[in-house]
Amino acid sequence: MREEESQKVSENHGWSTLCPDLLRKIIESLSSIDYYRAKIVCSDWYGVWKTCAKRRLCPWRIVCQYDSCKFYDPGEDKIYTTQYVGLSDNSYYMANSGNWLLMVDSRLDFYIFNLLTCKKINLPSIESPIRGAQVRFERSGESGYTWGHFVEPCRKDNVSKDIVGCKRSGVVLWINERTGDYVVAWIFKKHYLFTYKKGDDSWWNWNKDWITGAKNLGYFDVAYKNSKLYLYTTDNHIKIIDFSGDSPKEEIENNPYLDHPFNYAPRGCEVSPKRRIAIQKSGEVLIILNLVLIHESKLLFYIFKMNLESGKWERVHSIGDDEMLIFGHGVTIRAPVQDAGDGIKSGSIFFAFDGGLRSDYRCYSDCGIFDIATSIIKWPKKFQCVKDRSHWFAPGFA
């Protein structure tokens, strides 16, 4: 009899049936990550979570080491260290989309990891046959600096941790939180472009002769929005690949940038080590030049947008009142309603030092925030006792 009564008490006083006022106080006292995890516990918790005092949304910084992640939340000025079951040893951060991280390990195995649910999605082995071109990956031994080689009929390239460091090129992860659909694209040494869409049986490679007839075409950067992959090529064109069908294909007729290459010659003491692209909420393409003024040791970012009427690329000094840009995301994101401090506000570029700058330029941190309107850089404080570089991370929690 007592066991039955105890069971009834347990059933009637479960976590899902807590008094809303009590549950609201519990949720509002949680750390930032646990605060957003609370909304996925059950429908009752989600209903209460929506009534809680909302926390400011702003980019975080992340460092992944072994089976843990360190997060710095500027809104709370706190660093959180979280152990994750599912993060592989020797994994490295590549990109993120919402609550998902794109990770790669020292075997060049890619996977997607959800920070809230700890769900892990393994992507196909890069050693499997790759569609689209005559390239294969040959793995090295279990240890050593070199992870393996990409081999083509007339070319062989070493693959190592440089893939996430000084040899890092464009990479993008897009995932639909509601349907679970996702697309991954990454560039290596400006020569190799690999893509994978949920449901594909292998990776695609785009090292081929394009419809334009270009030979040895390379890639500066990549972005993804509305089922389209945007490529910024080394001949300064914007190409678009449509992923809405069963097989990706290049879009020709509906590409307004096709016959309008971007041209900019550095002036005077300008050096341009990096070129990026991003897609605005409007769907327009931005080209961002990372410039160093070598005599002044000054870092600048120039933003260009094509005038769709004239077909000319023009420099712009604003990306809108409610948008900010984080390198590695490929799209502009919603900015905080108000200035969150430390330079975190709309009209800013969030960048990370990845070895692409000249050695004579002094970086005061491994991450910075560039104010587009004033050209002033804010250098957030460094993580202490962390050997790996941090990256900006736009949590899609809310």
UniProtKB/TrEMBL annotation:
Protein name as it appears in the record: F-box domain-containing protein
Residues of the F-box domain: 15-53
Coiled coil: none
InterPro entries xrefs: F-box_BR-signaling, F-box_dom, KIB1-4_b-propeller
Taxonomic source organism: Arabidopsis suecica (Swedish thale-cress)
Residues of the KIB1-4 beta-propeller domain: 71-370
